[in-house]
Amino acid sequence: NWTMAGFRDLEIAKIREQVGTGRVICGLSGGVDSSVAAVLIHEAIGDQLTCIFVDHGMLRAGEAEEVVSTFRGRFNIRLIHRDASDLFLDALKDVTDPEIKRKTIGRLFIEVFEQEAAKIGGADFLAQGTLYPDVIESVSFTGGPSVTIKSHHNVGGLPERMNMKLVEPLRELFKDEVRDLGRELDIPESIVGRHPFPGPGLAIRIPGAIDRDKLALLRKVDTIYLEEIRRAGLYDAIWQAFAVLLPVRTVGVMGDGRTYDQACALRAVTSTDGMTAEFYPFDMAFLNRVASRIVNEVRGINRVTYDITSKPPGTIEWE
Ligand code: XMP
C-alpha cells in the first residue's frame, strides 16, 4: 500500500541509482515544486547537488531574500544566487506580446542558468520540479485541439542544449501530493503551503510592456491583497491569489480632487491541479475592505476590479 513516506524513500533510492557519483544542478524558483525537488534530491545526494537561483527581478516582495535564507540557512544546500534583473528588464522593455514575453524570459533564463552552471564546471544532470500537469499542458490542452496554450518556460530546451540528463522526481505527482511530500521532508509550511507562482513571475501579471515602476506598483497591491487574505484565514482555501496591473487609466475622486490613475484586477481561484479553476466567492465585505486599502494606500491606483472568470474559458494568469 502506497504512502508518501514510501514514495520518498523510493525516489531517494532512484535518484541515487540514477545519479551515482555525478553532479546535479537544480534551478530554484522559490516555488513549491522546485523547492521540494531540491530538498528531496539534497537528501539523496547531499553536496553533489548545487542549486541555481536566477533572480529575474519579477518576483513578489521579499521573495528572493526568503529563498536564499531558507535554502542556505535551513537546509544547508549549496546555492548560487544570481541577480539578473537588469538583463531581464532591459530585454523586456518594449515587449508587449505575451508569448514573446514568455519566450524572452525563457531564453534569458536558460542563458543565465548556463553561464552560472559553466562557472562551477557544469554538471551531469539537471533537476527540475516538473509536475504531471506541466507535462500534459505544455503539450496540449486537455479536451481540446493539440495546440500550445502558453509556453511554460520551465519545461524543455535546456537539457538537450547543455547535454545533461534530466532528474525529475515529481513528474508523476499533482500539486497536493507535492505538498504532502514537502511536509514529509520537513520543509516549512510557508513554502510547502505557498500558492503556485509562474516562472515568468510578475511579468505575466502586467499586460503590456513592463518596467520597474509598474513592478513596484504591482508588488504593493499584491502585498496588501495577500495580507488581507491571510488575515481573513482564507489563504489555504485558495489555490492561487494575485493582483494584475491593468494597462488602463480611469477617473476617480479622492478628497475634493479628481484622480486619473491606473486600475488593477484581483484574481483568486480554487483548483486541484491548475488545469481547471473556479473564481473564489469572497464575501462583499472582504472585497470592499481590500479595495479600500489598495486605493487608499497605493498611490497610482484608483480602481479595483475582481476577476470572476473560470478556467476554462479563462486561464488563471492573464497572459
Ligand atoms: P494558466 O494561466 O495557464 O496557469 O491557467 C496554470 C497554472 O500554471 C502556472 N503557470 C506557470 N508556471 N511556468 C510555471 O512554472 C510558467 O510559465 C507558467 N505559466 C503559468 C499558473 O500560475 C497556474 O498556476
UniProtKB/TrEMBL annotation:
Keyword ATP-binding in record: yes
Keywords annotated in UniProt: ATP-binding, Glutamine amidotransferase, GMP biosynthesis, Ligase, Nucleotide-binding, Purine biosynthesis
Catalytic activity as recorded in UniProt: XMP + L-glutamine + ATP + H2O = GMP + L-glutamate + AMP + diphosphate + 2 H(+)
Its EC number(s): 6.3.5.2
Pathway membership: Purine metabolism; GMP biosynthesis; GMP from XMP (L-Gln route): step 1/1
GMPS ATP-PPase domain residues: 2-194
Domain of life: Bacteria
GO-annotated molecular function: ATP binding; GMP synthase activity
Binding site for ATP: 29-35
GO CC terms: cytosol
Role played: Catalyzes the synthesis of GMP from XMP.
Subunit structure of this chain's protein: Homodimer.
Protein name: GMP synthase [glutamine-hydrolyzing]
Native source organism of the sequence: Ameyamaea chiangmaiensis
